[in-house]
Amino acid sequence: MNKHLISVNQFDREGLTRLFDLAHRLEHAQLDVTFSHKCVSTNLFYEPSTRTSSSFASAMYKLGGSVISINDVSFSSVSKGETLEDTIQVMSGYSDVIVLRHSEQGAATRAAKVSSVPIINAGDGVGEHPTQALLDLYTIHKHFDLTKPLHVALVGDLKHGRTVHSLLQLLRLYDVHVHLVSPEGFEMPAYLVQPGDELHTHLWTCMPHVDVVYMTRVQKERITDTHLLNQVGDYKLTPALMHMAKQHMIVMHPLPRVDEIDMRVDVDPRAKYFEQTTNGLWIRQAIFVNLFGGDSVCWAPHSK
Ligand code: NCD
């Protein structure tokens, strides 16, 4: 069966509830799962990563399985000119699942076409980053009741940031009022914007009203237009802005942070970006348990 996890559009609310329930039980040691060490995942990363590759590896090791880590493809046959398709066919013979990060949008779909084992999209260029969005939503779900209306602000480089592209699509499944806050030239792609979304160029205009502020960095490595980079200016979440915010709101960031959140915000109890990284471990364990646990997976087959 096609168990590839390529896009958040494979999820509905019911699937998300099941996955979050699994993550919750793993987190609170209510579920004891031990894989055979013969269960092998391959981390195949064509782009830099700290959290995503390490948390996928940690998740598999903690479950008892093993990991092949190709975190710098310049040391692999890719440097000799091997195609993605060939590398995937080879590695799917050595592993039970492949976690793939690539700089090109659509790479995970290409990989899924030739792989005999499930492909998990760990970021495909400016496309999607579904497992990040799952851990982001899991974090929101821990702090708010997702059956009630919620105001969420996505802030920063919404044009090139794949985490916000995925998260926004998941938020559409709930009663979420969306605020899109970006400097000029860094707006969310039109196909993801819906009537009713509020568009802002400055965070202060929506800060007092939102329950979640999701900050992102400028994706410099994806921007070739230096003129655009120079005009981005400064957008920064500061203690002064936090002073305007609701008492029970939360601040999130997929990390790495560059300078869009003042370090003084870290001590504010509403700052949840480091909690988010730990939630990534539970979500990624839940994905593996769901993949290899015998139950049907929480997501629909990938169709494209
Ligand atoms: C994000 C990514 O790679 O898209 N990082 C991550 O996986 N936590 C966000 C980013 O690099 O800005």
Structural write-up:
33% of the residues lie in helices and 15% in strands. It is built from 9 helices and 9 strands. Strand 5, helix 6 (162-171) and strand 6 (176-181) form a beta-alpha-beta unit. Helix 1 (13-27) crosses helix 9, helix 3 packs across helix 4 (107-114) and helix 5 packs across helix 9 (273-292). The two termini are 15 Å apart. The protein binds N-carbamoyl-L-aspartate. The site of N-carbamoyl-L-aspartate has 12 residues, from helix 2 and helix 6.
- Level of helix content? 25-40%
Give the strand order of the largest sheet, numbering strands 1, 2, ... along the chain. 7-6-5-8-9
Q: Which class best fits the helix and strand makeup?
A: alpha/beta
- The number of distinct β-strands equals 9
Uncertain residue segments: none
Please outline the major beta sheet: 5 strands, parallel
